[in-house]
Amino acid sequence: MKPTEKKQQEKSRMHARNKNLERYDLNALIISKPELKAYIVLNKYGKDSIDFANPKAVKLLNQALLHCYYGIEHWIFPDENLCPPIPGRADYIHHMADLLTTTNFGRSPIGEQITCLDIGVGANCIYPIIGVTEYNWNFIASDIDSTSIATANGIIVANATLKNKIECRLQENPSAIFQGIIANDEKVDLTVCNPPFHASAEEAQKGTRRKVKNISGKKVKTPELNFAGISKELICEGGEHQFIQNMIRESKAVGNNCFWFSTLISKQSNLKGTYKALEKAGASLVKTIPMGTGNKSSRVVAWTFLSPQDQKIWKETRWGNS
After folding, report:
1. Residues contacting residue 197 through CB under 8 Å, at least 6 positions apart
2. Could you tell me what percentage of the chain is helix, strand and coil, using 3-state DSSP and rounding each to the nearest 5?
3. 184 backbone dihedrals φ, ψ, rounded to 5°
4. What is the rounded distance in angstroms from the CA atom of residue 296 to the CA atom of residue 279?
5. DSSP β-bridge partners for residue 291
6. Could you tell me which residues are beta bridge partners of residue 301?
7. Any residues with CB less than 8 A from the CB of 242 and at least 6 apart, and which?
8. Each residue of 12-64: pLDDT tens digit?
């Protein structure tokens, strides 16, 4: 493969509709968020860049991205909460929109007809923000942390485009995922989830040290998370593998209430166990969608329990297509 072809392939790893497909327009972002100017540094190629090793710089960058490209005026949450990279989160939503379109014979269901459940919305409310602003979907946003729910509600109230589009629900049982969130008579077209991927604080710290070294080239014994994140957002017993196993097992009980379940899987080593669990649960259709932003590769696994006949009825009654 020629170097130019390789470079183009790396660029095309991001979804074609991603608003940040190209290199950041730093001038436009600084206009949106003037405080960002203080965190511009020269990268190893001698070009202006963001100081990605600095959590404050990363948060300001993502506030600027949301303001400049998504029209979000107010995106405020505590510094200890996870600050997600906007382009990667947007990619997930775009791929899910494609999945809905493929499911619907190439026709995208009208946005307001779609209800999406975000499992573990966090204080930043990022998936609902992108789903609402890009596709006009309605959202149910669940979380086990009451403070995160309150903060997410504050973001919704502060931005006119989000009002009446997102309903936050507290998951009162920390060991449950869908139970207590999806009502017996409720229909959800799609679920999204970025599961906690560390099994312990020690594992999370090790991952952070590796990330900081990759960004700055420096070894730091107790690094500060450049994307922050409280323990509930990053850590769960058994890590990503166990969380997804629990999700699959519980999704079967609400299999008639939801068309597509989906989750991000950051560790490729967890795929085999995921497929095995889905086969055991009796999923009727499973799709794996590769994703990649920068140097990071991940994938989304989506599944449904609906039979072809049930899928047809769902499309006709909810999406208005025969």
Report:
1. 234, 239, 240, 266, 267
2. 45, 15, 35
3. -55, -35
4. 28
5. 298
6. 263, 288
7. 199, 236
8. 489 999 999 989 999 999 999 999 999 999 988 889 999 998 999 999 999 99
CATH code assigned to 76-319: 3.40.50.150
- Residue 229 falls in which region: left (phi positive, over 0), alpha (psi -120 to 50) or beta: left
Instruction: Decide the pairing of beta strands 296-304 and 285-293.
Output: antiparallel
Q: Which tokens is 118 given?
A: 């975000």
Percent of the chain with pLDDT over 90: 74
Task: Sketch the domain layout of the chain as residue ranges.
Answer: 76-319
Which candidate, 260, 259, 262, places its Cα nearest to that of 317? 259
Q: Are 152 and 127 in contact (CB under 8 A)?
A: no
In degrees and rounded to multiples of 5, residue 173 shows phi and psi of -105, 105
CA distance 192 to 211: 25
Confidence band for 295, pLDDT divided at 50, 70 and 90: low
E strands along 159-242, which residues? Answer: 166-170, 188-193
Q: pTM for this structure?
A: 0.86
